[in-house]
Amino acid sequence: MCLGLKNIQIMPKIFTPLTIILLITSCAQKPDCSECMEKLNRCAMSTTPPIDLPVTKQESTYSEENQLTAIIFENNMYGFEDDETRYTFEEYKEALSEKIEASTFKVQKIKIDGHRLAHYESVFNVLAFCQANDLNPVLAYDK
């Protein structure tokens, strides 16, 4: 027989921890009291605290297809992954702008694939181009 817990009503949400403690500690038939277990389950299930999750931003439509790859070679020349032509930076800026305008998709990112022996200045040149043209750079390098 349960000791006095038959008359315990589910308390308001503010007293839920107290109700759970009373249900767990005051039953003489631990843990076989089905009445207490039923009340405990109802109490636990009925008083789930509200969870405030942060509002997520709308994800962009970025995919691998929405990026171009800028390659920087070990001799600090520039190129594209689908082209063997080597460019100086001034030539490369023009070629990259033309490639962006001619693309059938909205270019959002430029993957900078730099050789590990390339100078930092060459990488920064592409980063500056990305910033000036509202593009997001993605850095990578060859080992």
| Share of residues in strands | 15-25%
SSE sequence, one letter per element = HHEEHEHE
Distance between the termini: 74 Å
What is the overall shape?
rod-shaped
Class inferred from helices and paired strands: alpha/beta
Give helix % range.
Answer: 25-40%
Radius of gyration: 32 Å
Number of helices: 4
Oligomer: single chain
What are the SSEs and their pairings?
Layout: H1 16-25, H2 34-46, E1 67-72, E2 78-80, H3 89-102, E3 109-115, H4 120-132, E4 136-142
Parallel strand pairs: 1-3, 3-4
Antiparallel strand pairs: 1-2
Helix pairs in contact: 1-2
Describe the structure.
This protein has 143 residues and is an alpha/beta fold. It folds into two domains: 5-46, no CATH class; 64-142. 35% of the residues lie in helices and 16% in strands. The protein is built from four helices and four strands; from the N terminus they run H-H-E-E-H-E-H-E. It has helices at 16-25, 34-46, 89-102, 120-132, and strands spanning 67-72, 78-80, 109-115, 136-142. The protein has a four-stranded mixed beta sheet, with helices on one face. Helix 4 (120-132) links the parallel strand 3 and strand 4. Helix 1 (16-25) packs antiparallel against helix 2. The longest helix has 14 residues, at 89-102.
